[in-house]
Amino acid sequence: MSLVEALREAVGADHVLVDADVRRSFETDWTGRFTGSARAVVRPASTAEVAAVVRACGAHEVAVQVQGGNTGLVGGSVPGGGEVLLSLTRLNSLGDVDRAAAQVSAGAGVTLAALTAHARAASLDVGVDLAARDSATVGGLVATNAGGVRVLRYGSMREQVVGAEAVLADGSVVSRLGGLAKDNTGYDLVSLLCGSEGTLGVITALRLRLVPLLRARSVALLALPDVATVVAALPALRERLPDLSAAELLFADGLDLVRRHAALPAPFADEHSCFLLLECAARTDPTDELVEAVAAVDGVLDATVAGDAPGQRALWAYREKHTEAISALGVPVKLDVSVPVAALAELVEELPAAVASVAAAARVVLFGHVNEGNLHVNVLDAGPAGEQVTEAVLRLVAGLGGSISSEHGVGRSKVAWLGLSRSEAELAAMRAIKRALDPHGRLNPGVVLPVPVA
Ligand SMILES: Cc1cc2nc3c(=O)[nH]c(=O)nc-3n(C[C@H](O)[C@H](O)[C@H](O)COP(=O)(O)OP(=O)(O)OC[C@H]3O[C@@H](n4cnc5c(N)ncnc54)[C@H](O)[C@@H]3O)c2cc1C
Questions:
Q1: How many C-beta atoms surround the C-beta of residue 41 within 10 A?
Q2: Nearest atom (ligand 1) to Cα of 108
Q3: Contact residues for 185 (Cβ-Cβ < 8 A; gap 6+)
Q4: CA 293 and chain centroid, separation
Q5: Protein residue with its CA nearest to atom 15 in ligand 1
Q6: Is 144 a pocket residue for ligand 1 (Cβ < 6 Å)?
Q7: Could you check whether the bond before residue 286 is cis, i.e. omega within 30 degrees of 0?
Q8: How confident is the model over 115-160, as pLDDT tens digits?
Q9: Model confidence over 90-120: pLDDT tens digits?
Q10: Following DSSP, what letter does each residue of 17-53 receive, concatenated?
């Protein structure tokens, strides 16, 4: 039996896409920067179908490229060339919310938006939120250990995972969806899958922790002179604001791009260079608490607080529209890094010169999750110097004791630089784990680790 026949037998002929025109939208990622061709796109609807696909690919010695919502920003969701692309969006079942345990089971292809709506209908909420919520899937979020805007309160995706079901490279299924809050029986395979970017197993279902639904919100936008002042304000803000859920850093050039792209008004009458967006969420209106805390911040040049939902959406738009506003101007070099918070001001100060040293005409647009020392570095007009820009920025970050991938993962785009953030001993351990679980290198070859995994 040919591979395509075996795939059709596994998932049904309607869900094996071989036509180049139909495959195309799966073969290029959200950024438009990463593209690769697949032999076929296969859309299974159950764990058993995923296992059958993985086994069929194994029997034909063909690699598998795993894909969720295809919103990843590091080239890890599209083929390197010649793989069978396994799209998991049909794994979209949602179990009843278990209110006693504050947990829910979800198929890997459920979008973050669908999961959130489901949880909220049961008066609970999801701890992770990010701007790609309408397309990003829970499988992808766990596979990348996604962060987003609420890490400061609830942690990254790893912290939301209670259990998982996954198909391993040999087609076997591991399943721990029982929802035990305490379970120390040996190696934590579920945790290992978090952040493994589809290289150790195909996640097919998840058991997720839910958090209280806090309907009362308040959002503030502060203008401050510089990053050092923002960082200096963080300890007092965290202390005064037990309901603090988000602290986002923006800059004037990014805000201007967003305003032009989305035709938004200026937030303040005066111009400022650096902004901090804060959100509090609570059971009762946190606006007074937020207003008082903002008034106590040293160095505030301007501030506005929105207690009503339309006003809050308007302030969040300045932050959330950054990614699409930047992408509307071209395909940027996108880097997502973090440094110790104490080094964030130095990173922001040194970045423009580091980029200019290799791409004089490039424009740098920054924003980030300030509490985690995170910075999204977007470089437009880098021309042919994309690799040099990446090298310059990542070396600067590593020199400041930072991580070359704060929350988006390594994907294909940062493989060459993994050694800047990981020691040789750590890399050897990662290679040993990959070889143990996927000895033939069938799952997402070239993602996280180079091929061959020596
Ligand atoms: C506008 C925008 C804003 C974003 N904001 C943030 C942010 O604030 N924080 C953040 O962390 N990320 C952010 N991202 C990045 C992205 O949304 C996340 O990385 C997300 O987790 C990817 O989910 P996905 O389903 O789209 O996965 P994909 O892009 O399809 O895949 C990402 C990686 O996970 C693997 N994978 C996907 N599904 C599975 C599975 N079921 N089993 C095993 N491996 C799998 C893929 O092979 C790939 O390596 C943003 C992206 C966009 C476009």
A1: 24
A2: 41
A3: none
A4: 30
A5: 72
A6: yes
A7: no
A8: 999 999 999 999 999 989 999 999 999 999 999 999 999 999 999 9
A9: 999 999 999 999 999 999 999 999 999 999 9
A10: E--HHHHHHHHB-TTSS-B--EEEEE---SHHHHHHH
